[in-house]
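Example 9 (inverse folding). The structure is encoded as follows.
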């Protein structure tokens, strides 16, 4: 059984990744990724589909073993999988819920996995279901929920043990505008309360709105990293090709990679 997460607010660097590589069948999908995330920071990993975002997040979450490189979460090497999992809340692209159980039963199951029981678990379930707007649906089975409601419950389940690091892997794919806004607001609240958040997306406007720092990843390499202002100030020596609708990070992506960015 995984021990329950301490409630003390974490400080300093929560995630530190250095020179991560991952090869599948002689094809190198991630090629030397390095970055860090501090407490109270949303770090965006921005890139098109197939850029290596999900592979990177799965290595950091201990679901994939790096071919080489290293990373720590709350000071613990990712090779120590059980200890690292206590400090991570992972919300994957695919819904990770038991659809034949109710919202309350799902939350209770994941809470007990992390060693929560009794009044502490009850209070945490109440708090999170209220925060994601599902308190009145707690006794309904998940298979009766819309896709957006399932996304919100998935996010609540990832937070049940109050982790210092939350990993959101393209959490708004296929959701309605109301759910998208709810996810944004919750991420911002968590950041303000000291949670470190790794947010992968291929939507540029999400990175522009949410992220304190952004890394642009392409073909397994981070081609630029910095604040939004730093990325928008990026210049290259060679002239770039025409971009029909230059807009923020789209223009930066073109300048840095020579490619048209497409969602």
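The amino acid assigned to each position is listed next.
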């Amino acid at each position: 059984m995984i021990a329950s997460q301490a409630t003390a607010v974490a400080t300093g660097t929560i995630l530190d990744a250095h020179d991560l590589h991952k090869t599948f069948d002689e094809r190198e999908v991630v090629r030397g990724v390095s970055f860090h995330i501090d407490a109270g920071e949303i770090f965006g990993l921005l890139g098109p589909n197939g850029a290596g975002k999900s592979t990177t997040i799965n290595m950091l979450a201990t679901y994939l073993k790096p071919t080489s490189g290293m990373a720590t979460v709350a000071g613990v090497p990712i090779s120590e999988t059980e200890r690292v999992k206590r400090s991570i809340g992972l919300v994957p692209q695919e819904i990770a819920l038991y659809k034949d159980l109710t919202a309350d039963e799902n939350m209770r199951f994941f809470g007990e996995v992390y060693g929560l029981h009794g009044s502490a678990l009850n209070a945490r379930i109440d708090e999170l279901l209220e925060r994601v707007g599902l308190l009145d649906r707690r006794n309904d089975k998940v298979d009766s929920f819309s896709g957006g409601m399932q996304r919100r419950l998935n996010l609540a389940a990832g937070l049940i043990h109050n982790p210092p690091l939350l990993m959101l892997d393209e959490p708004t794919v296929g959701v309605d505008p109301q759910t998208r806004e709810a996810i944004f607001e919750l991420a911002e609240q968590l950041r303000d309360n000291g949670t470190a958040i790794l947010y992968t997306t291929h939507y540029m406007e999400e990175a522009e709105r949410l992220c304190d720092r952004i890394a642009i990843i392409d073909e397994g390499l981070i081609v630029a990293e910095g604040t939004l202002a730093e990325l928008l100030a990026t210049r290259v020596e060679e002239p770039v090709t025409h971009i029909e609708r230059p807009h923020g990070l789209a223009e930066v992506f073109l300048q840095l990679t020579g490619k048209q960015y497409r969602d």
